[in-house]
Specification:
Helix content is about 75%, strand content about 0%. With about 500 residues, it is mainly alpha-helical. About 45% of the residues are buried.
């Protein structure tokens, strides 16, 4: 597939805006959520504001990837962006929490196309050697949104109202549509006959919905065992049926033959696990700093800022590295470094210097920027061009699943560790621990009680980061067995 590249820089601007638009959505909505919940009286359903967006984007990602390979990148990208804008507009005019949740689902359907297709368009426009730098440039959208999302969200809520956090997507999206519509050309794209794998899509959707619901619910201490067992059974049965269908159908939504290449599979699994690990510090660094060091929410949030910045810096080294080393030779030493820097958190006490968190975030960002960008470029390069869209969607889906799964697992670990320790502290309630997690809701407890709660929270963190270290070791071992021992040409 050859593209007209004379407008490639302008197309990259459109891709950057689209990526920024979808990535900043999470941080802005998080900032505005308390106001939205209060205005729409939706406290009991607040988690679904995020869950529906996540569910629909995850389910639709592999479908869009397949369609991008079948009917073209441009129409799928335009459809996805249009759906995202429609969902944004409807969210902005939502009059109740139920409507907002439904409209967030529409937004998610659009995001499911935007995220993987942007990677695919970059792969189409630029050579293997130049691709990593372009992906690094596009990754700056994630860094900028992480830095400025909360600030922009707070400003909009305070100066305008929460409806505008959705409306601001409209002018940005229109710019994207105009540039892609008029500047992006797929001159030699060979469109294939569209054979929709309906059964595959149905069973895949059931599997993903059940899986995401399961791990969303894991952090809920009141999760009924019957619901847990039901979801597990549905996941197993639907997954088996999906695999049976994909082996027999002529044009599967996910070509299983892609995973016969062990290096490709290892890149996807590496991205999945490390994306999950990210949640271990993005969620629990701020909690640790607020509850134990009494940092303000904004100061605690700044602890992960170095990671966002260094992620971008790390991305720019990938082009040089992949020309000289096999993927495993890049990933294994860096994951070993991650294991070493996170290991002290398994044994940390209250006396751990505050600067340690900033140092860990800095090194983590640099390493992750190199590793995740490497897995992106390599996974795309290892598949035929006809499957670029599908490969990009598999990578995006893997990262989404990793984040969702490990958010649930970490939440479960934190809750189980708390419940286990409360048996030894009769004078402390779960409500007191919940209040102490945020520096805003901290109460005036006695010195002994406050220290005991800090002790419980730090022990919880030990459990969280023990799992993080184990996951790093797992990634190291998986890449050790990668058969690709030379540079990927």
């Amino acid at each position: 597939m050859n593209q007209k590249t004379n407008n490639s820089h302008l197309i990259m601007v459109a891709i950057f805006i689209a990526t920024f638009m979808t990535s900043i959505e999470a941080t802005i909505v998080t900032t505005a959520l308390p106001t939205i919940i209060s205005d729409l009286n939706g406290l009991s359903m607040q988690s679904w504001v995020f869950a529906t967006y996540l569910l629909t984007s995850a389910i639709s990602t592999p479908v869009y990837g397949k369609l991008a390979d079948t009917v073209g990148r441009k129409p799928i990208f335009i459809i996805g962006t249009s759906l995202f804008l429609l969902g944004s507009f409807l969210c902005g005019i939502a009059g109740n929490i139920e409507a907002l949740i439904v409209f967030r689902a529409i937004q998610g359907l659009g995001a499911g196309a935007i995220m993987p297709v942007t990677f695919t368009i970059i792969a189409d426009l630029f050579s293997y050697e130049k691709r990593s730098n372009k992906i690094a440039f596009n990754n700056t959208a994630w860094g900028i949104s992480a830095l400025f999302g909360p600030i922009v969200g707070g400003f909009i809520v305070e100066k305008l109202n929460w409806h505008w956090i959705f409306f601001i997507n409209l002018p940005l999206g229109l710019i994207v549509l105009l540039i892609i519509g008029y500047m992006y050309h797929e001159t030699e794209f060979q469109k294939k006959k569209l054979n929709i794998d309906y059964l595959g899509i149905i069973f895949l959707s059931i599997s993903l919905v059940s899986l995401l619901l399961l791990f969303q619910d894991l952090s809920n201490p009141q999760l009924a065992m019957s619901k847990l067992i039901t979801l597990v059974i549905i996941i197993i049965v639907s997954s088996i049926l999906f695999l049976v269908v994909e082996r027999k159908v002529k044009d599967p939504v996910i070509p299983l033959k892609l995973f016969r290449n062990s290096t490709f599979s290892i890149q996807i699994v590496t991205a999945l696990i490390l994306s999950g690990v990210q949640m271990g510090y993005q969620i629990y660094f701020p909690i640790w700093l607020q509850s134990v060091y009494s940092f303000s929410p904004s100061m605690a949030g700044l602890a992960i800022t170095p990671s966002s910045i260094m992620w971008l810096v790390g991305s720019f080294f990938v082009g040089w590295l992949i020309k000289r080393y096999a993927p495993k030779r890049i990933i294994m030493p860096l994951v070993l470094i991650e294991t070493i820097i996170f290991l002290p958190l398994v044994f940390a006490t209250r006396q751990l210097p505050e600067a340690t968190f900033y140092l860990i975030a800095t090194i983590n960002g640099l390493v992750m920027g190199i590793v995740i960008t490497t897995t992106t470029v390599i996974s795309q390069h290892l598949v035929p061009k006809d499957y670029l869209g599908t490969a990009s969607s598999m990578f995006t889906l893997g990262r989404t699943l990793g984040q969702t799964i490990m958010t649930g697992v970490f939440g479960l670990i934190f809750n189980l560790a708390t419940q286990s320790q409360l048996k030894n502290f009769n004078n402390i309630s779960l409500t007191q621990i919940t209040n102490e997690i945020s520096s805003v809701t901290k109460s005036s407890l006695g010195k002994n009680v406050g220290q005991e709660i800090q002790y419980i929270i730090i022990n919880n963190m030990h459990s969280i980061y023990l799992v993080v270290v184990i996951l790093f070791i797992l990634v190291f071992v998986i890449n050790y067995f990668d058969k690709q021992k030379t540079v990927v040409e």
